[in-house]
């Protein structure tokens, strides 16, 4: 599953960003809908500061300037506007935004906290004899939804969308609940 997702991601990125002879090969296979937005051909008249690459490079430069403490929560927008004269709500990459605003140690800690239920869930899925096949499939879909949410946050910031943010926390709660339930049942 991971290899398949990685292959799809690499193929789309190759179609969008590789040198032209290589990209043309992948563009014959990958539908234009997937790679054109990453290539900035949809909005070719868009000013350079509004391209995601520009936002991400600026966010990364902020991380490099203050890797330990960051610039403070919700300061990306103000700093970006001061530099480029364009207002953006966020840099369209949750992990870069969090790193720029709170620093790398906090981002690594937060990602570690999010990874812990995922790791425990995968271990439970692999080792549990008490999960019925139907339960395994449902639990696998929770884990998959969680991973897809994390991947999606590399291209956008879902924390500011109430619906997506609520679905993420409910999915995480479901994963943690299943882990707690089965680990609690094993102890008794």
How would you describe what is shown here?
- The protein is mainly α and 188 residues long.
- It has helices spanning 2-17, 20-29, 32-39, 52-65, 76-84, 94-102, 104-127, 133-152, 162-187.
- It folds into 3 domains: 1-45, no CATH class; 52-102, no CATH class; 112-187, no CATH class.
- 72% of the residues lie in helices and 0% in strands.
- The protein is globular.
- It starts with a helix and ends with a helix.
- The mean pLDDT is 85.
Order of helices and strands: HHHHHHHHH
Q: Can you tell me the residue ranges where pLDDT is under 50 for at least 5 consecutive residues?
A: none
Reported for the largest beta sheet, the result is:
none
- Structural class determined from secondary elements: mainly alpha
How many helices in DSSP terms?
9
* Shape type: globular
The average pLDDT value, as a whole number, equals: 85
């Amino acid at each position: 599953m991971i290899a398949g997702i990685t292959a799809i991601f690499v193929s789309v990125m190759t179609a969008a960003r590789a040198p032209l002879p290589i990209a043309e090969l992948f563009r014959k296979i990958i539908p234009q809908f997937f790679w054109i937005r990453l290539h900035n051909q949809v909005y070719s008249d868009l000013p350079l500061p509004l391209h995601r690459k520009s936002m991400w490079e600026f966010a990364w430069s902020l991380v490099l300037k203050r890797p330990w403490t960051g610039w403070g929560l919700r300061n990306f927008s103000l700093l970006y506007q001061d530099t480029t004269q364009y207002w953006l709500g966020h840099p369209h990459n949750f992990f870069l935004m969090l790193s720029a605003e709170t620093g790398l140690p906090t981002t690594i800690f937060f990602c570690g906290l999010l990874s812990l239920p995922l790791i425990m869930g995968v271990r439970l899925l692999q080792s549990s004899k008490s999960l019925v096949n139907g339960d395994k499939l449902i639990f696998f879909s929770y884990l998959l939804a969680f991973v897809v949410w994390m991947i999606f946050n590399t291209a956008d910031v879902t924390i500011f969308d109430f619906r997506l943010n609520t679905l993420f926390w409910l999915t995480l709660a479901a994963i943690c609940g299943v882990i707690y339930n089965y680990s609690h049942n094993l102890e008794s």
